[in-house]
Structures are given as C-alpha cells and as structure tokens.
Amino acid sequence: MNNVVILNSVRFIVLLLAQVIICNNINFLGYINPYIYIIFIFLFPIKDDRLAFLLASFLLGMLVDMFSDSGGVHAAASVCLAYARPILLKTSFGMLYEHQTIKFGNTEIGSLITYITFGTLIHHFILFTLEIFNMANILLILQKTLFSSIFTIILSVLIIILFSRNKK
Fold this sequence. Notes:
The protein is mainly alpha-helical and 168 residues long. The chain has one domain. It is built from seven helices and no strands. The longest helix has 27 residues, at 138-164. It is globular and about 45 Å long. It starts with a helix and ends with a helix. Belongs to the MreD family. Its main location: membrane. Keywords: Cell membrane, Cell shape, Membrane, Transmembrane, Transmembrane helix. This is Rod shape-determining protein MreD. One of its GO terms (biological process) is regulation of cell shape.
C-alpha cells in the first residue's frame, strides 16, 4: 500500500478515536466542545480523488454521529466542509493551490490559520444550525459556533504544528 494511504488511514482512526473518547466528553461552560476530527478533512491530500475524499468525509462524520448519537449532523457538516475545501484552499493559499504544490508542513502559519479558521467556522455553523434547527435561536447558534470554533481552531493549529510541521 501507498504511504499516503496508510498515513491517512491512521490519521482517520486516531482523530476519530480522539474525538469520541476525549473531545466528546469535554463540555466547557455547558456548550463549548472541540471538534478536532475535522483536521482529517483539512489535511487530506489535494491531488487525491475528490469522490473518495467526499465519501471519507461522510464516513468520518457518520462515525462521529454514531458514537455521539447526533442523528447525522456531523456527517452533513463534514461533507459541506469537504465540498467547500477547494474554495478555502484557493482563498487561503492562492497560487500554491493553483499549482497543486501545497505542503501543509511547509506553508506559512498565517495561511494555515486562515484556512483552518474559515473551514472551522463553516463546519461549526452548519453543525449547530442543523443541531438546533430553529432560527428563533440564531443567537445560540452563533454563540456555540463562535466559542466552539475558537476552541477547535486553537487545538487544530496546535495539533497540526506539533505533528505536521517539518523539524528544522
């Protein structure tokens, strides 16, 4: 098997287990939870098959839903994030994405944070909108999106820096 396939399979399993064992049990201030499983979607190789990527994102979200008993909201938010990813990559990395030369371990930290921030906000907004599913509670949706996004962005950037950056 290819090293990239093995790396992504291990990343998929580790992030799924970390999400369901550790992060799902964090309930800071009653409504702030990190959702670090989306790191898999952020770091999936750019040149790989788009259909396989969308299916892997759906499977990851569906497995989180199964362990969280959340009825499909993670699967929907994950697929939406995976679908929006090319736009996020082009916005954050510009010509690096155009030439398909992005290596997340070598990118500028500002571009990486921009990419993760926009992606996390999109994912969390869709997730909490579907979870609450009542526009009368738009302030609660925005509050949960903002605070959970901040927590997720900080953890995601730290994890990516610790495990993906090249050691110099």
